Amino acid sequence: MAGVLVFGDTVGGELTPVSLEVATAGAGLADALGESLLGALIGDDLAVATREFRGGFSSLYLVEDKHYRPYTAQAYLNAAQKVIEACSPSVVLFAHTLGTREWVPRLAAHLDTGLVMDCTVLAAEGKDLVVTKPVYGGGILGEFVVRGGPRMATVRSAVFDPSSAAVATEVVRLDVPVPAPGRVTFVDEATVAAAGGLKLKDAKIIVSGGRGLGGKDNWHFIEETAAALGAAVGCSRPVVDSGWVPSSHQVGLSGTCVTPDLYIAVGISGAVQHLAGISAAKTVIAINMDREADIFTRANYGVVGDFREVLPAFVERIKQLRS
Amino acid sequence: MNILVTLKQVANPDISPSHIQLDPAGKRIVSPFGIPPVMNGYDANALEEALRLREKHGGKVTALGLGDDTSRESLKCAIAMGADTAILINDPDLLNADSAGVGRALAAAIRKIDDFDLILCGRQASDTDGGQVLHWIAETLDLPAVSPIVRIEAVDGRHLTVHRLIEDGYQRLRVELPALLGVSSEINEPRFPTMRGTMAAGRAMIPGWKASDLGLQPFTPKVELRQLQIQLRTSKADLIEGNSAAEQGAALANKLHDLGLI
Questions:
Q1: CATH assignment at residue A118
Q2: Which of A49, B43, B127, B144 meets the CB 3.0–4.6 Å disulfide criterion with A15?
Q3: Searching chain A, which residue's CA lies closest to the CA of residue B135?
Q4: Distance (Å, rounded) from C-alpha B100 to C-alpha A186?
């Protein structure tokens, strides 16, 4: 067994940005192990994704069929197994997504091999794969040695820089027979649009409110600030639990993990689960009455003050600066 | 419908990392004195869903845990909430097992119980955030598994219709029983124990099974925890000052503008 195999992630045939980050993680490991770097894509209509999946792979394996849209765990599991059989890698990496969280552990169990999910550091020590992942909602880091063949890991998004290496020189198409209908069958799919228009997941700027706002009556401060900045509206879990806003706005481990350039947290104390959900935010601003709130441990800039006065003046100044 | 629910007892996830402690080997999270461990939150959602299904469709609910003697507390809590019976796998040899080892032990216990239509598990545990054990159980028992589930829409004979979370919505899937579901917190709000339940929990006998009772062979872990490290957080925020909150607000806008962020 040799080679580091990187599975790209596609949604509706489009390569997702995290795929290129996993390619970077894989390239580092392949270098350290002195092994080749291989890529793989599973999906429907992969022509564009194939051209975009940069990583410097010596070979790119493709399993392409309309059968892979919509996603079902059994189909992906089956296809991935065929790719692994075809190239016998020593290490296999995946993006950490809602899909891989379901089918990759099953694949590990099926292959009876070691897997650690949601890794932020991957290293080779001799032939060992040593990984680090946040546990306890992000408050603790765990370091693990992964064993077995192949050793597997899923990689958290927005940790590694996207690869800009060349696309694969060789593309290998694998003909995987479509398995008989399993015990889980797809019925249909529904999109739940985030209220307030802008999607949290892709937002460049997010204004988020927490319990410190004191009540639903004060929520308009968040919406007005978000509107002035062209930002998406987020919130912490207590706000959802209190019924001020729907759960589609919830940022954090049990809500949406976000990756904005600018995250403004107003009246959010900074529970571990919330901080984990904004770990990939580039710049975090905390506005809070309580200087001791945990949110200031993550914030780059802070304002200790009453949001009812801070935010209107902030919005006023933004409008001046923009006009 | 007979339902098995797997329960893990974890350190209270609301404890700030600055108060959490590790054992001397740096391998286990230890609850600080005076803050008792709790039932894993997603597992509580799984138990609640099991109780609701029993209320509608009959059958019984069995809670199954793996842990040290203190884990009986979570299982008693499960009975107090309404579970019919509870079983604990408590074997020191299994306490440091990896996901594969824990999953196989739970699967072996489930085989021994041998009377279930549905297994409900939390999607992951809040201490290790692993999310693998349920899939090792499903693979070992050759069951279909779907996760994370935010709704069980319908029960129709030997099939369930469930909603599985996707990035911007959910997919509806039809699952043949017996099956295993990984439950997410959106599905319900777990109930509190009742007085009657608490009395039943006080009387309940919770058997403790060992690896040898389950016919488990010694195994080599696939994943070895080397160490845990608490992320001590210290404030590094630059504070924006001003003579009034309004001045601070304007100064913040200027700062973000200077940084090219807005």
A1: 3.40.50.620
A2: A49
A3: A106
A4: 28
